[in-house]
Amino acid sequence: MLDLITFNRWWDTSRVDDYYLKHYKRNLFKRLVDYLGTRQILVIYGLRRTGKTTLMYQLIDYLLKKGIPPKHILYFSFDEKVSNLKELFKIYSETIVSKELSRLKNVYIFLDEIQKLENWENQLKIFYDLYPNLKFIISGSASITIQTRATETLAGRIYDFILTPLSFKEFLTLKNEPLSTEIDNIFDMKQLKSVFLSKNRILPYLIEFAKKGGFIELIDEESEQRIKDYARSIVERVSFVDLTGVYRIRYPQHLKTILELIAANPGLLLDYASLSKTLNRDQRVIADYISYLKYTFLIKSLYNYSKSRFVSERKLKKIYLGSTNFIYGFYADKFNEPDFWGRVMENLLVVNTDTEFFWRQRNYEIDLILKDNIPLELKYQDRINNDDIKPIIKFCKKYKIKRALILTHNFIDSSRIENIEIFFIPLWLYLLTK
């Protein structure tokens, strides 16, 4: 029989273990609380070790303090084996609450690492439709709702939330380095210059943030070796355990090799033919492996911007690692090389910016295209010349855009060039904006 009591100690103590409560509450916590009263399933997913399980326990603590009866909250992790949800809920109803599920009021069901349960989306749909009194909060170390079958099966029944690694702002909060001013408008130079006064205090943290990659467990870690080992442990766990448990992967070592290739060259143009030759495998195998790595958030890809999504899909994509901590795990010795450090900063920017697009046309390239088609180019230096600005001007004229961003090392200014307002903002400052 499943040992549910070990997972759900609040049935006896009426409280969540202090271990989970002492942890920092992520920004996502407040958003999820607002959705606890909705009918829909809440889906929390993201890269391994970002704190999804801790977040679930913090939500359970919130519910207990709101007066929800302890036995009306069930947590289960599919790191443990169970054949199906019917078996799990049968044990819960017969041995814990001693009632049919339909006779209970306001029951909260937390299901962790649900992607490990075969056919989970169809099983969950059945219980969601049959028992409107059950509120499901589920999590996975993979982009589980991106799967077509899950999206189609649970259409209209889910709200999904991505728990990313720590933002730079969250990282500074945990380092007890608060900001003097909130930046809620990236184009407000008054706000930007107010926070810019903190550069001597804040900028040195950027190197540490890049090495630790936003993993909360590394916040106070001082050992360089352990920081590198942490990255390797995640890569190996996902490559050799998580993914092989979901897919039939004949060459899991190739997953790690692909990650190492990206770590050596963040922003690598995704050329399946070239990777196929390097790994001596069929292009279809390589394409599958890339999709698996995206599925677990170990990599992030960007599309070449076009007004047509179909055209963007056909063009070469760029790929980055899901955390700069992985780059450090593979190539810590190269972090002191200026050229390589610029690529690390590009990767850091990409994973901390919510966009899917870059732009590349002939001899012109722009790192990111933001909301409202605003171009953003990273020039991790303090002197910007005309050649640095040319791609921005080209893009803005082509798509009739009036504003643009160029991220620098530590130079801040704004200028109107050819009727385009260009903002020059330090990367560290940009990372602190909402």
How would you sum up this structure, described in words?
The protein is 45% helix and 17% strand. It has 434 residues and is an alpha/beta fold. The chain has a nine-stranded mixed β-sheet, sandwiched between helices. Strands 2-3-4-1-5 form a five-stranded parallel β-sheet, with helices on one face. Strand 13 and strand 14 (420-426) form a beta hairpin. Helix 13 (224-246) crosses helix 14 (252-264) and helix 15 crosses helix 16. The longest helix has 23 residues, at 224-246. The termini are far apart.
Describe the SSE topology.
Blueprint: H1 4-7, H2 10-13, H3 18-21, H4 27-35, E1 41-45, H5 52-65, E2 73-77, H6 85-97, E3 107-112, H7 120-130, E4 134-140, H8 148-153, E5 158-162, H9 168-174, H10 189-196, H11 199-202, H12 205-212, H13 224-246, H14 252-264, E6 268-270, H15 272-279, H16 283-295, E7 299-304, H17 309-314, E8 317-321, H18 324-331, H19 338-351, E9 357-361, E10 364-369, E11 375-378, H20 386-399, E12 403-408, E13 413-417, E14 420-426, H21 427-430
Parallel strand pairs: 1-4, 1-5, 2-3, 3-4, 7-9, 11-12, 12-14
Antiparallel strand pairs: 6-8, 7-8, 9-10, 10-11, 13-14
Helix pairs in contact: 13-14, 13-18, 14-18, 15-16
